[in-house]
Design brief:
The protein is of the alpha+beta class. It has two domains: about 110 residues, Cathepsin D, subunit A, domain 1, CATH 2.40.70; about 110 residues, 2-Layer Sandwich (Nucleotidyltransferase, domain 5), CATH 3.30.420.10. Helix content is about 20%, strand content about 30%. The chain has a six-stranded mixed sheet. Strands 2, 3, 4, 5 and 6 form a five-stranded mixed sheet that branches.
């Protein structure tokens, strides 16, 4: 703990472990209030956290307490404000808080090992900054803010002129429009089963005739032929696909070369990975939050959802 002392002319301590950087040099004495003297052994910086750094601190032989000089803090362009339960040390020019001292009985002290400011709710506020009011009110257009001021529709809104002299990041991002994916005008595959698009739909509000809530859709990229399998739960996806792959490859006398799906857990799992490795199937995934990359089957899913009223 460090004492905030208005009667102390220099920062000083007798504990050399407090210093982050020190230069040892005997340079005179410090005279105490009882006229005793302590030898100055050196000076340096005290830095107990990434926030607080105190310069020009004297190391005094035999000093039992850590003292912070109020006058020396003020010389560093700091402002010290004492209140009933604490004191605030801020930059004089910007009012930015540096650290907080606590009142313990009749003495103000600082603990550099605990520089949390959680106990302070609000240390400095501005009510005449137009862009702060713009952000506080939703953000609202500057022209509307001027109307609110002229008609006095908001209590506490200052009588200032609001101008759009710069861009608001939040407004700019909110008004951005995503560019659409261009439709492909040609088929990128040359044979059936060369690429299969897969997606899962569910749970639906209405059961299928077999009492299932989920539907697995597979679309062939070359022919756009669609297979639909109704399943009871997501975990059945792999077993249904494995049976389908055997049947369709024997039926068409062709091999499945590649499949494409999203990153859903029903597709991206160890069972699917081992099956694809054993049968030489490339499993492609669409980018997260980009269903357009798997749009062939997504259009089918959207159609099923419309039928279900979802």
């Amino acid at each position: 703990m460090w004492y905030l002392d208005s009667g102390c002319s220099r920062h000083m301590t007798g504990d050399s472990s407090k210093f982050s950087k020190i230069s040892y040099k005997v340079s005179g004495h410090v005279t105490y209030g009882d006229n005793n003297k302590g030898k100055i052994l050196g000076s340096g910086k005290v830095r107990s956290s990434s926030v607080v750094e105190i310069e020009d601190v004297l190391l005094v032989d035999g000093l039992k307490h850590n003292l912070l000089s109020i006058s020396q803090l003020c010389d560093k362009n700091l402002k010290v404000t004492f209140e009933a339960h604490h004191c605030l040390i801020c930059h004089a020019s910007t009012n930015e808080l540096v650290f907080v001292g606590k009142r313990i009985q009749n003495i103000y002290m600082v603990d550099f090992e605990n520089t949390s400011f959680d106990s302070i709710a609000c240390l400095f506020s501005k009510n005449d900054e137009p862009w702060i009011w713009h952000k506080r009110l939703a953000p609202i257009h500057m022209g509307h803010l001027n109307k609110l001021v002229s008609k006095k529709l908001v209590i506490g809104l200052p009588d200032i002129k609001f101008k759009s002299d710069k861009l608001c990041d939040a407004c700019q991002k909110g008004k951005q429009v995503k560019s659409s994916f261009k439709s492909k005008q040609h088929i990128s595959t040359s044979n059936p089963l060369e690429l299969l698009h897969m997606d899962l739909f569910g749970p639906s509000r209405t059961r299928s005739l077999g009492g299932n809530f989920y539907a697995l859709g597979l679309v062939d990229d070359y022919s756009h032929f669609t297979w639909t399998f109704f399943i009871s739960c997501k975990s059945d996806t792999f077993s249904v696909f494995r049976k389908f792959a055997k049947i369709v490859q024997n039926e068409k006398d062709l091999k499945i070369k590649s499949i494409r799906s999203d990153h859903g857990g029903e597709f991206q799992n160890e069972s699917f990975e081992k099956f694809c490795e054993n049968h030489g199937i490339s499993h492609n995934f669409s980018a997260p939050r980009t269903p357009q990359q798997n749009g062939v089957v997504e259009k089918k899913i959207d159609l099923w959802k419309s039928w279900q009223g979802q």
